[in-house]
Amino acid sequence: MSTLQRDPDKRVQVLDEEGRVYDGATVPELEEDELIEMYREMKIGRHFDQRAVSLQRQGRMGTFPPMSGQEGAQVGSVHALAKDDWLIPSYREHAAVYSSDVNLSETLRYWMGDERGNKMDDQPVFPSTVPIATQIPHATGMAWASKLKGEDRVFMCYFGDGATSEGDFHEGLNFAGVFDTPTVFFCNNNQWAISVPRERQTASQTIAQKATAYGFEGVQVDGMDPLAVYQVTEAAVEKAREPDGDDRRPTLIEAVQYRFGAHTTADDPSVYRDDDEVEQWKRRDPIPRFEAYLQNEGLLDEERIDAITTEIEAEVDDAIDAAESTDRPDPSEMFEHVHSKTPDRVADQREAFERLRDRHGDEELLE
Amino acid sequence: MSTQNQQSTTEDLTLVQAVRDGLYGEMERSEDVIVMGEDVGKNGGVFRATEGLYDEFGGDRVIDTPLAESGIVGTAIGMAAYGLRPVPEIQFMGFIYPAFDQIVSHAARIRTRSRGRFSCPMVVRAPYGGGIRAPEHHSESKEAFFVHEPGLKVVVPSTPTDAKGLLASAIRDPDPVVFLEPKLIYRAFREEVAEDTYTTPLGEAAIRREGSDVSVFTWGAMAYRTLEAAEELAGEIDVEVVDLRTLSPLDTDTIVESFKKTGRGAVVHEAPKTGGLAGEITATIQEEALLYQEAPIKRITGFDTPFPLYALEDYYLPEPTRIADGIRDVVNF
């Protein structure tokens, strides 16, 4: 039986809280290099996240949505994609986007208020979406277009538990089922939509079971177990590319996890949730758990951990330097890329604005 | 104005037939063009705007979708970003609100958000406006919502020739276009329309009737009614009728030039008065041609009420008598 064909309330798990393989669990076949790379990406995700929050506190960056606790789901899932498969992220997928080869400095630039960070060059990554669930129909539409073009790419769309309450979640998944699009819907169920708990999002027993309503498979996985996430996502990606028999291509994955920090740097989670709950989830932290597994397997030792730690700290330092040393966008950038060809009226506004800047200088203008 | 090939043969078409003709021509021209929406396939659209396209191009290009406006436009945005040219249909403009978020938050912004990496070459077609005895929520005229949003183009044809040419331009345009079809005049009259494909440029108003006493700015079904009013006034007042055709970007040059010529103006639209486009046009004239102004600019519009059920819709919609009265007020100020 495929990993996906199971009761949606039977959660897929490979590693226990101490990083030991559960009895009867299958460990996905991954090369040593790839396992270490996953570990490195999770570590850099965590370190980046902590530095980003600190940059915000120092006034060097704007509001930032932290993702500590969610590294296993993000990195584990991206590793199941092929190089030209697409990622359609929400605003919290910093590690997933990094795993797709987007430099951390781009993510920083975006959160430092520079829209150019969202361009992400030629990576198969769509700009992150801030409104909730609205990227889900986009992912379905992209996958649908790709299928109509005769390609065999897979489109992975991330969203949170709150998104499953939105109409666009339903509409995006419904279209995907009807038109059998090669889409993997990956719900990072981190238990809280800002201050509203999962229990207030849905009376369904699981989010995974909602897939049944759309005619395709749903599966629940331990989102803080990167090996389980990889295993489930790999099966979903494979099915999206080449479904068996009457299988529908899409899958809804519910990755059960927790965000250790705030929704964004603008809210205080201690107001709406108990410390006990946080501590309980921290015992399932994907990083020490995966680290213990790799150590037990003889793939990692203290020396290598230290080397990786030093390496990722330097990489994040460099990314911060790169983001902070980039020239601020020119004010006329506001008027660029709004239309393929700037309408006269907008061009007039830009010219009037430039005359104002020339007359007063930016310093006086922004006083 | 249009690049119509004068040599081509013509056919006598209503506005809705011209829309269908335009879709056919663009689908034939490019495989990337895809029509999608509720009832657009086998049924050929509730107004027959997509009649025969399903048989001609098949169910992968003329797609009957689930009944979900945000899903239709949201998936079309994904398709457009991925290189297709979808033409989603919203069956009536009064049902566009579930898709409003997708249109303004995403279609209009993808180019900006990705700094030009992605664009959204999509045309959202929607029949709009009142006057056909339709049920509640079927008669709305909310173009101002979309004109207010940077990154969108808003187009409203008022003749069969323009419907076909403007639709072709909209489909070929790299940016998202909201294409509003005045259903009151879908079948009100016929016109000779070239059989071959042709384009009519976006962003250019058309002077439908030259006049020297007063400029009346209008679009869609109200253009037709304004022309009727102008005929009624002929011999008494010489009315210039400017059909804006594209509401965003607005052809302010033509508006201002016409106003400078006549020194008097009125705007006719069926949308509610408050926050309607008449305010924008009036303000533009104030900014650019105040010293030419001989009289206050009159707004002849729908009322600030929900569009009434059809027993009262004839009172709500500006009709030639109300339009003519408004024009007289301006000229006799």
Q: Under the CATH scheme, which class of the largest domain in chain A?
A: Alpha Beta
Q: What average pLDDT do the residues of chain A reach?
A: 96
Outline the low-pLDDT stretches of chain A.
none
CATH architecture of the largest domain in chain A: 3-Layer(aba) Sandwich
Protein name (chain A): Pyruvate dehydrogenase (Acetyl-transferring) E1 component subunit alpha
Biased composition (Basic and acidic residues) (chain A): 325-348
Domain Dehydrogenase E1 component (chain A): 40-331
Pfam families (chain A): E1_dh
Task: Describe the 3D structure.
The complex is a heterodimer of chains A (367) and B (333). Helix content of chain A is 44%, strand content 9%. Chain A starts with 31 loop residues before the first helix and ends with a helix. Chain A contains twelve helices and seven strands. In chain A, α1 packs across α11 and α2 runs parallel beside α8. In chain A, the strands form two sheets. Chain A has a five-stranded parallel β-sheet, with helices on both faces. Chain A has a two-stranded antiparallel sheet with strand order 4-5. The model of chain A has no long low-confidence stretch (mean pLDDT 96). Chain A folds into two domains: 298 residues, Thiamin diphosphate (ThDP)-binding fold, Pyr/PP domains (Rossmann fold, 3-Layer(aba) Sandwich); 35 residues. By secondary structure, chain A is of the alpha/beta class. Chain B has 333 residues and is α/β, with parallel strands linked by helices. Helix content of chain B is 36%, strand content 20%. Chain B is built from twelve helices and 14 strands. In chain B, β6, α7 and β7 form a beta-alpha-beta unit. In chain B, α3 packs parallel to α4 and α8 crosses α12. The longest helix of chain B has 15 residues. At the A-B interface, α5, α6 and α12 of A face α3, α4 and α5 of B.
